[in-house]
Automatic annotation (TrEMBL):
MF-aspect GO terms: DNA-directed RNA polymerase activity; mitochondrial promoter sequence-specific DNA binding
Biased composition range(s): Acidic residues: 1063-1080
Chief site of localization: mitochondrion
Family, as annotated: Belongs to the phage and mitochondrial RNA polymerase family.
Entry superkingdom: Eukaryota
Name of the protein: DNA-directed RNA polymerase
Region (Disordered): 1063-1098
Pfam families listed in its UniProt record: RNA_pol (PF00940), RPOL_N (PF14700)
InterPro entries: DNA-dir_RNA_pol_helix_hairp_sf (IPR024075), DNA-dir_Rpol_C_phage-type (IPR046950), DNA-dir_Rpol_phage-type (IPR002092), DNA/RNA_pol_sf (IPR043502), RNA_POL_N_sf (IPR037159), RPOL_N (IPR029262)
Organism: Schizothecium vesticola
Keyword list, A-Z: DNA-directed RNA polymerase, Mitochondrion, Nucleotidyltransferase, Transcription, Transferase, Transit peptide
Enzyme kind, highest EC tier: transferase
Residue ranges occupied by any DNA-directed RNA polymerase N-terminal domain in the UniProt entry: 136-458
Amino acid sequence: MLKASLLTARGSRLERLVDRYMAMLPEETALECLFMTEVLDARDLATLAEIAPAYNMPRGVTPVDMPVESTGTGESDSAIEADSFHVNASPRESPEVLSTPQKGLGLKSLKETLSLFTTVPTGFNIGGLSKAEQKEVQARLERDCVESAILRWREDHAKLMDMGLNTSVSSVSLGPRLAEWQLNLEAYLTEELKLVDAAELAEKKGQKDMDRCQYGPFLRLSPPSRLSAVTILGTLSLMAMTGGDKGVPLVSAIYHVAKVVEQDIRAQVAASGSPTRKMTAHRGGARRLMRLAEDRERQQSTADEKGPTIARNETAAGWPMALKFKVGAALLSGLLKTAKITVTGEHPVTNARVSQAQPAFIHSSQLKKGKKVGVLVPNSALTDLMKREPNCDLLARHLPMVCEPEPWSKFERGGFLESPVALVRTKTEERDQIHYAEAAIRRGDMDQVMKGLDVLGKTAWRINRPILDIMLEVWNKGDAIGDIPALNPNIEIPLEPEASDDPLERRRWMKQVRVLENERSGQHSLRCFLNFQLEIARAYRDQTFYFPHNVDFRGRAYPIPSYLNHMGADNVRGLLMFSKGKALGEGGLRWLKIHLANVYGFDKATFKDREQFALDNYENIVDSVRNPTNGTQWWLKAEDPWQCLAACHELKAAMESPDPTKFVSHLPVHQDGTCNGLQHYAALGGDVWGAEQVNLVPGDKPADVYSAVADLVREALVREAGQGSPFGAALKDKITRKVVKQTVMTNVYGVTFIGAKKQVLKQLENLYPTLAQDSGLEVILCASYIATHIFKALSTMFRGAHDIQHYLCEIGGRVCDSISPERIDFLAGTALDKAKKVGAKKTAAAAEDPKGELHSTIIWTTPLRMPVVQPYRKSTSKTIQTCLQNLVLVSPDKFDPVDKGKQLQGFPPNFIHSLDASHMLLSALECEAEGLTFASVHDSFWTHAADVDDMGRILRDAFIRIHSEDVIGRLKAEFEARYKGHLCRTRIVKTSPVGQAIMEHRKKARLTPVKELVLEKRRQDLLASRKPKEVKMGEKMVTPGSIFAELASFQDIAETESQAVLAEEEEEAEDAEEGMEATEEAQGGQEPVFGPEGHPLQGGNVLALHLQKATKKAPARKPAKQMTEVWLPLTFPEVPVKGDFDVRVLRDSPYFFN
């Protein structure tokens, strides 16, 4: 009856009927009626919320008597735990967010998605509902966006049709046009499915029939009406994200549409629970096709290195790449054929207004980097319409949740309720990590990781209303303040020089214009993104919300909602508070003061000095709260201004309460590690000096590793300046903490010498823009000089860590150069001949050279037992035929050779990241066990001010727990077990005695490389046998490997893996030093080259350097050693000797995280 009233009645009559029927319901079921979404759609609920807002409330709470924010002085549990009906501020309406003009669908799409919150009365918290009702609201957010879009389009279309207007001609709005597109595409897909049925029954099938037989079962998984809507939304959202005025690469458009459709179908399957028999039949057909596609890929190779046996399922494995592109192409092809837009213009002769129906999207081609690339270009009329009136998008699956996330239980079961999300973030078609993760989940090895993610997801958040109101005030004024760019930045473009002027002057002008235009564009893009964040924050201003988390392949946790989360920039962190509060106590009040000093930037002093800093600046703190935009604006001078302002509000409120120690605080207080990567390296290598610099050793004040490195570099430059070095003399007073910080921070994560040089160059250009003119030295050479000294300082300070890095490169390189016994058996078996017959070129080529069979990637297990699989391979391209065009795709495959360079460059930093991630998740589990609220941003851990001391103890204990074990020794043991039986390709010097013996043997044996490899594998199997007879047979076999075992020494190996990896960087550093020496010699006793106005010429030193190189004979390089390769059993060297540092002393270090 309620539904009928909403459909038929209007005005006061509707209000009377709603009151009558709602009053008939018992009080406890009135609210449940509003969640019957199969009867009441979004518009019905909005109407009910407007007529009878009281029925949106929990029992006993009305809009009038809803509680306002507590003063923070209560001592009861309800005050401390913030009851379920807690409201952040008085129920007043926040001002609207001034929109930033932007292209595409983005902003209003977000507003449409957030429209659910507009039906909630101001000040009402969904968190006050029961758990079941919270989940129903969250499910609506995830589920209803497509249906509500279709309904809205059709209603707009029907209104115009009722008025006797043709939407193709009369509509100036996008909605009615989309309704027409949706109906036309639905009809097209219905006919396409009939053609699929016919193709499946046809005895003789052409290419189109074969394609339809492949993608048809996947199209049946969803109704044509929904498929058409999702295709339209996916295409338009891509245009919005890319600003596709100039077109989007067709391969990107096809993949995006297929991905959105796949996600939507998964969400439908997850939500349906018990699918119909027809749906089950369609899914069975799709599964069979998936198996066929995967079998076809496996025909090329059927064996690989040992790995977990995976019982794949449709949901976790996802659609195969080839089928995914065929599905996307079929849907996009239908949209291109059916989507029309009416373009109106003036006749060139008669000036009369004429209209023409044109395709909304055009498939064309463009030249990019000399290659012809297919693109999808929107009609210019559609682009203009999208700019004027954006529409709904699928953003709901990227918003914070209004109920606790689903606990993780499977690879794609956890986080959001109805939108499947992967536990581990992987690249497209990167299956190795998925397989290992699924196997680990089945064995229970991922339990701690999943529980840790559940802890992070259960942390309840809310919006800091005072900060939001200030931010909205600043935003709507359009001024630049606190890292928020201005609405209309005052960037003046310099006047264009006359055509007759110096061409160099015009070139400089063009460069300056490009820089200014990039700055303007960057500020506009940043403001557009901040616009998104403010809209979400405003919509959630009265709500309790949550961030579900997942991990990357290294185990680092990230929040899934991408627009608003605590890993955002300073403005977002300033907006967020814990939903639950805790009374400060004496310790919490102290930490609140320290936190304010930290976010202001006064974070290198002792805790006592930081606490005093807050007290000394209390007048500035009060002024910042009372007059944030018109006062002294002290908070804007902070390193993190918005977080500083939030801390000012919290501290002022606490100090003005009757008892500051009883003030209930919601502000997260941060504890940040001291260059966390170096902390792990110092513990692994046992470096006493290094441990002191990163606060692993107790001290009276915090150590600063960046300042320590700067001091070492400065001392070296002073010393060299005394020896006559112009670089030392020019730079000795310019070495600051800021110059070295980025290079020191990234050194542990694998920065190369070239990367370090660029980092230093950027700092020098920012801090000393006139360095070249003042010193007469090229800035790039100065940067190389400083980077070299930074590396030397780090190797001195962290000697053990340096050895660990070399060791990781060494063992990783041996893995990449190895072949598994299963792969060798495959090469030796009949599968090779079969592969040749079916034309498997890859495998046939391997018969001549087994180097193409180096598939072994680096895999290890974290301390929390999560398998980490490095995804770096040399992927090959393949052509996929679709109904639109042939697509050339680079698709990773586990049978592709590994990219050894990327594997070795990534291994040390990824290994440290995995330790860092394990420390964070272990700390999260311990914090939950002790009742602490916990959040993290990688190496920055957050909790209530009252709990900082407890969290600090937990962080120290977790670090000690990890490093009390022999981490590197355990890694070596794991590698020995994981890669047992592998044969490793080893390079030896051809002219050495063992090299000559092997070459002589090969002349006699005349074996192909593959046969030689297989023979060595046979010898190793015999030697490992338990039968003495077979062992003797193995001992009698003569192979290059046996010759090496008998005659070789370590000196015969051409180079170790760590030497190979470091050789290039060392050569770069030597070249830089040679260049500087040459420059110094060229400048010896000479004045710098000056220009007409007395300024040193930029190219003077370069010219001198080239002259020097031209006149001075280059030193003769040593001839490269001739090498040969031999297959040997894969072994690993001994772990480097650890230093004297005892990690247990960390327990007494107060500045470990500070």
